[in-house]
Amino acid sequence: MLVTIMSCNDTQNSSANTRVASILSSPITVQENLSVPSNQALTIDMTPTQASTWQPDHFDSLSENRSAVPAVRTYSSNYTPYCNKAELNTLYTLTPAVGNTYCVYFDVPVDARTVFFVENQTSNRQVDLQLIQDIQANHVFTGIGYSAQSGTSDNISLFADAGHYYIQISASAADGQSVQFGVSAKNLFTLNQDMNYIQHTLDYNTDVDYFRIKSDHAKEMVLKFLTATNEFDPADWHLEIFDGVDSWMQVSASTEASFNVPADQYVYMRIYRDNTASVAGTGLTYRYALLTSIHHMTDMTAKPPVGSNVTRMPYGSTSPYFPTQFYDQLTFQTRVTDSAGEPVEGANVNFWMGVPPIILTLPSQGPVATAISDANGLAVATIQVDDCNADSVSAVYSTYINNGSTRVTQRTHYQHLQWSITVPDAAANSEVLKTPADWTANTTQEAAEICGSDIISTD
């Protein structure tokens, strides 16, 4: 899966927030000695077939989409480790002996961005690192990855599902000195909404939070910072998206990045502070949005309630003609869909109405109603309108009753109004209006609030 980013100007940010809970909360600061005996009875002996499936330094958990035989993932808090248990985010020391293999177990209780590592190696002190998972918590082991570098460290990076993980450290050279090993585990939040507005606080200054999302259909999404506050400045942060190969691409603080999400594949993002001297000491709370791009808006209506029995002014009796006519209550509705034509849930929709020309008068007053789209992409809002002045504007027209034998001439007093709909988080290149600044004479609709009617004559 390859992600390509396209940048657009950031014209609107939503103030809505979705808070996410912190999961893994400590940097690697603790150093402990862990007794890891070289006991061949406790060494996981991988078969050649399993070993051949291992891949070095890849980013997706084998239990998610790389297993040769798909298996249901199982996590159990009552799991009995096959060998020595170590803690996450803790640095351990080990003095290896040539020919020995050391098995260590790590419990990963939640989805996490992990790096399993062995450091402090030299040309005379070399080990190989293997990563193994017990996918179904039944002591049946699957190889995840390996690292056999000749430098100072070996590491395996993994977006890990909650589960039971083992490393095996095999010594090929030893000088009586220690290596250091452990696993760095960072928050990995799984987003599952069409419209995600994130506000969260890092656990510590050098922390990194990771996020991922998967869609059941291919679609375009947008990643961007939310509006700055007294406690948050986008310029102090790095917001990045993984390209699906080997690189992280940064999103500018002043632009939004649009990208295509493939069907049924995770896309990964991360955010961390810029800890240079110029921004040191700023807050640890960040704000950003991951949004489904809204490309289409259909079923736009403004109607009186069912049963209101509005006496409508017929076509030709007024200029302009008023498709929308109502008494004192009006229901707005529209449907929003994404680049694939699928409904978008959770989109903020603004409904506007006022005395024409609303292009000039309404932006400073704000919308008359707002709504959030449902699972079908529908956004609906009903407003109560103040009584209008019965002497403002009137139209005289005739209708026929009694099978056309009787003509009724009447006068209807009304107030001329206009209405429109905007979606602040619509795609920049879409047909959907984002703000009142996008209005034109062709994008506002005519409406009439009926103040009252009287009969002039019957003949």
Q: How would you characterize the overall build of this protein?
A:
The chain has 459 residues and is mainly β. Helix content is 3%, strand content 46%. The chain has 3 helices and 29 strands. A hairpin with a 4-residue loop joins strand 27 (393-401) and strand 28 (406-422). Mean pLDDT is 80; it is low at 1-35, 37-42 and 46-70.
Concise overview:
The protein is built from three helices and 29 strands. It is mainly beta and 459 residues long.
Helix and strand arrangement:
Layout: E1 6-9, E2 18-19, E3 30-33, H1 48-52, H2 62-65, E4 84-86, E5 90-94, E6 101-108, E7 112-119, E8 126-134, E9 142-147, E10 154-160, E11 163-173, E12 179-191, E13 195-201, E14 208-213, E15 219-225, E16 237-242, E17 248-251, E18 255-261, E19 267-273, E20 285-292, E21 294-303, E22 324-326, E23 329-338, E24 348-354, H3 358-361, E25 369-372, E26 378-384, E27 393-401, E28 406-422, E29 445-458
Parallel strand pairs: 2-13, 3-5, 4-6, 12-14, 22-29
Antiparallel strand pairs: 1-18, 5-12, 6-11, 7-10, 7-12, 8-9, 8-11, 13-20, 14-19, 15-18, 15-20, 16-17, 16-19, 21-23, 23-26, 24-25, 24-28, 27-28, 28-29
